[in-house]
Amino acid sequence: YFGGGHSGYPGNDVEIYDIRTNVWHQSYHPSVPPASDPVYGSGGSPDVFLNPRTGAWQPYTIHGYGRTSYDPEHGRYLCTATFCRSVEFDQVLGIYRCAVMDHGLISFDPATSRWEPLSGKLSLAPNTWPIDDANLSHWDPVLHGGLAFSRNKLWFFTGDQITTLPLVDTDLGTVGNGGTATEYIPELHSHLIMRMPQGGRPAAALFLYNAENQTLKELTIPSKVAKSIGGDGNFFGAYDTLNRRLVVLQSIDGRARVWAYDILADVKVPSPDHWQLMPATPQAPRMSTDGAVSREPFHYDPLHNVFVFVGRASGDNWRDGIETWLYRYRGDTPAPNS
Questions:
Q1: Phi/psi at 97 (5° precision)
Q2: What span, in angstroms and rounded, lies between the C-alpha atoms of 65 and 294?
Q3: pTM to 2 decimals?
Q4: Residue, of 271 and 135, whose pLDDT is higher
Q5: Is 132 exposed, middle or buried (0-12, 13-18, 19+ CB in 10 A)?
Q6: With bands split at pLDDT 50, 70 and 90, how would you rate the model's confidence at 128?
Q7: What CA–CA distance (Å, rounded) separates 222 from 238?
Q8: Angle formed at CA 62 by CA 57 and CA 67, multiple of 5 degrees
């Protein structure tokens, strides 16, 4: 958990959740930007914190949870943010300062609690990596890398290079600012992009992108689901690899509701019957109508066969507290390692 969201937590500390003990661990104490920084209004800062005594830098939080991803091959977290490319020591003042500030892909090592640039080839060219527009997908285990995309640009990154990929001249119409959810579907070797309707942007849509073949396919969303999604942005989900369902979390009547989508069957033969709205429960977490991915993170843990949801206690205001919820789509299905 790395702050962010829309008008969310302004601290730049990284929190690690231990699901076995139900305990959050703070990797380091937070630093916050000056009072004039836009992080307090929108949840995204264009600046970076640098410790004047040690020269170590830590990014401030960024707008949206669609900016973060996990690299299982190197055991690190990746995100787009502002960072210090070059640090200098001021002999007169006796402090370190950020000589060259840049933005792009950086990595966080939970073992050392340190941030580092992903590679020396981070900046491709001016304006080719718009920090206000990038979203990160989940790691691609076949290609040993990850995807980053904006409305009409796509990049593939590994540990030592970033490559621009063709997007078949398609404007996805996705929400920028890290506000678009993605999932990797291993059976299809494709990345599912969930476009939400918001602020006059196009209607909700689902796209499958195969990075190996570089093909893009749009999936049909049934009208019953589209109406439930609404027009104010509330469309994000995670893929249950054990039960092979995309679980979409939504706010309906102020409470979290779940759609279970059989995407594998739908790719073969499209049908509205492949979408199932799970029964409502009064114990479900409260959610505001604008509960989009840029506000609450929602991820699947395959080791325990549960989804982890971090949301606002009141459903409206982060300042009322943050709650951690676990959800299991099929309770009668044993987890592989629990």
A1: -145, 160
A2: 5
A3: 0.87
A4: 271
A5: middle
A6: very low
A7: 19
A8: 105
